Amino acid sequence: MQTRPSKPNLKSLTGLRFLAMLPVFLTHAAFEGVFTDADASWGFLNVMGTSGYLAVSFFFVLSGFVITWSVRPGDTARAFWRRRFFRVFPNHVTSWALALVLVLTVGTGIGLLPSVTQLFLLQSWVPDPAFTDTGNSVSWSLAVDVVFYGLFPALLALVNRIAPKRLWYWVIGTAVAAAVVPAVGLAVLPDTPEMPLSGVSESQYWFAYFLPLFRMLECFLGMLMARIVLTGVWIRLPVLPAVVLLVLAYWAAQQVPYLYRLSAVTALPVALLTAAVAVADAEGRGTPFGNRVMVWFGELSFAFYLLHNLVLKYGHLLLGHTEVDGEQVGRTWDVPGGVAVIAGGFVVSVLLAWLLHNGVEKPAMRRWSRPRKARTTASAGGSSRPADAVPAGEVLAP
User: Which residue stretches does the UniProt record annotate as biased composition, category Basic residues (predicted)?
Assistant: First the structure.
């Protein structure tokens, strides 16, 4: 049995967050249809495939992994929930308010109830696209995160009681459970109304993709992988073979029915890559994902995630739009012009993410993530740990 590794900051996983954000950004850009040439727009969307879904699955697995990895001795559930609250809600409320302003400015409209459910992160429990596809639509994943955070202390107690030699059985069982979810949705839910492009119904898609109850399986899978590494029963899979395995799984996912592409085929390979990268950092070997530039972008990834689709969707409409069948459609450009618009959207998203990260996220964590007494004690004691520091690579996955 291997020696339990130390718990350094997992820089490579932070950098990997940036890589995972790129397909999310590009997939949303592809859905905007910025090219006048329909073949170019469809080609762009086809190239992106389901890479955005793979990235979202990675973020859920990563969330479970790094939060389990970063648990501190003597930490309490109340302290954990406080840190999570002030990590999530200041950024979320700011981006929610910005989305509301943009909706009112552009005039696309949003219902009162969907807006309220988005504010309180309840929208993913509602099987209606009107609740998840309006306003700041990407915040649906935070609705999964907050449920996971609420249950995390109890889930951690469960995971800690699993004998190390049995952890892999739990990993396999959890991966199988995630793979069964689409089959259940297809079997029990109606086939209509149908989602565009996917060949499945709105309720089936919601069941397999949005419903927090099932997306938490990926978070739990990340928790199990963290315990596997920390208890020394890791299988020593190097990073490069783990990457190859994930690429093969992604290819295989394109060969199966649509709902199985979302995470059923790729969740386990994603978890294996996450653990392999973490072990490389823990053992001091590092990876190309941990370079300074990627880590900088990775630290902005939460803010970038919350803002990028607002920039793409409403920025597109603000650049010019027409009304087609009662719906506002953004203008289009030739290929060079469309590429320039997408590149500009990325730059604007990064700049706004930097402002949100440094103007809201970090100050909120510094001021409120710990009780005043703890902040005062740390300051009086000359602690080198800033009040907004995130222990041992603890990050929020979008």
Answer: 366-375
